[in-house]
Amino acid sequence: MKLIKNIGLALFILGLTVFVASLTLSNHTLTEDVLSENISNQYHRDMIQQQAGDLMGKEFGSNVAFINAFKPVLNNSLKALDKASGVDQANGVWNALPEKLPEGVSENDYRMFPNTVDDYLFSLTKYSAGGLLPGNSNWFFLLSFILAALGGLMYLLPDLNLIPGIKNNQIYDSPATRGITFQVRMIFLGMTILTSILMVFFKYLLIGILTIAAGIFIIYRIYKTNKENNVSFAKTRKATAPKGLGWIGISFGIFLILFYVTLYFFPEYITNWTLMLDPISESLSGNTAGRWFLYGFLYTMVMFVMGIRMLIKYRHNNYQLIRTGSVMFFQTAFAFLIPEFLLRLNQPYMDFKNAWPLDYDFFFEIDKMYGQGTEFAIAGWATSVGTMMFIWGIVLTLIVVPFFTYYFGKRWYCSWVCGCGGLAETLGDPYRQLSDKSLTAWKYERYIIHGVLVFAIVMTGMVIYTYQTGSSNILFFDSYNVRSWYGFFIGSMFSGIVGTGFYPLMGNRVWCRFGCPLAALMGLVQRFKSRFRITTNGGQCISCGNCSTYCEMGIDVRAYAQRGQNVVRASCVGCGICAAVCPRGVLRLENGTVDIDNRVTELKTVHVKSISFTDGAFSLEGNEI
Question: Measured by CB atoms within 10 angstroms of the end CB, which terminus of the chain is less buried, N or C?
């Protein structure tokens, strides 16, 4: 079995190496045919060809050289079209002058915008490619995606021969996490803040500075508080962990951070990966693969492989088997396949399980959904597929989410349906023990996640106001800028780069615990009006600490068990791992019916206050059992 694991590891490393190296295996030449096929707007096409000059038909040895040459061309084309249409931003003229536009042509059809430049750069980089990879994309797909997945499965499957169950197996000594001290976390947070600073120079200056200042203040306060309390991540593990950093975890974190930065902000550099996925994308939706199809495919494949790992590791617990199968199904079917099939059927794209405010851009472009798609009638009421999708999104947020949260807590969504939670439970499972259980972390958790929720509500309100009135100016803010700020700092930096890239540094539920506005919304229902709780049998607890160690949300479950108190926390996602790793069966996930209001304070063990001896008999004073 060890041989099979080693072969699997070798195949995975080989597949990953080919995957990364494939980004460099192409040359690029922009021809008139490539320009015509990918840019349908005649004014844009003619201006780009004019600005490109001698670069047309020139071969570049790599995508980096091609991008460095043509990105200025596209930016110059944007400026030239602005100038031709009378736009002069330096003198406060932001819109095109009607007399400067060609007859019968609208401003939006004539001008180029920054997002247009980004889209053109991606398409031209992708379809100007030639050389080794574009000519053998199917082989490279097999040697990268498939080989890495096969190697991962070969590495995992021999674990079926191990005795089922969770053991106290020196989890902090893993080379994936060993020695990841508080100082190491600060370095990575600092690197992320530096990335934000670099991005600030290009856009969102004011909000970027404020966010950076807030991040520095939070880091300083956490460091100072822990120092005052003589708490350090390294000290708590000094007794067992050998010296040296967990290089696997550090390397993995760096890879994830770089991947998300490139995916969100520089997708033109990963077009070779999308070339390998074009046949799959075309078979599903009829369209070629873009960066978001690439992300969805990778997301689903990683969840499948690491989901197999979860099924093997927790095969002694039926709850974990069904729950893991559920998140794998919802990611594959609802988040990946069904939206692609909808596009093939010429219907609006929608992930039917994504609820606002997690789906924060639901209200951004209502017109692209409402009234779109196939038209039909219900009892004489004329409607369309897109309209019904829009109605479902409202019903999901206002009715379905609160209803199910009341009966089952957050777990029905966060641990059974959500794609973010699914990735955290599968890919992030090896890092769940890294969640900070300190009181300081809990305090900041409450302020940060509810602050994001307020931000999402205000931003959405401004977007709806603009849609209804046509005015984007609200007090001192522009609604389009506010939604861009949210998309950049919360939708990209927080949920992606920090939320996933920091798995090996801060645990696997960083986004779910500190940033997800839907988790915050459901957490309020769960904390104050829900049937869900984790019950404890304190008399059986041996204080081994497995439950707290494995809690991905940073809850000190053992403290609740020792008191015999129900675990009712707004942050708890009901993953059930604490119960699965308990050697004494102390913990149970339950949905009560009659004690909703006192489930937080009720104690299930006798806490003795005093003992007295009168007339040969003992008497105890304490709380009720």
Answer: C
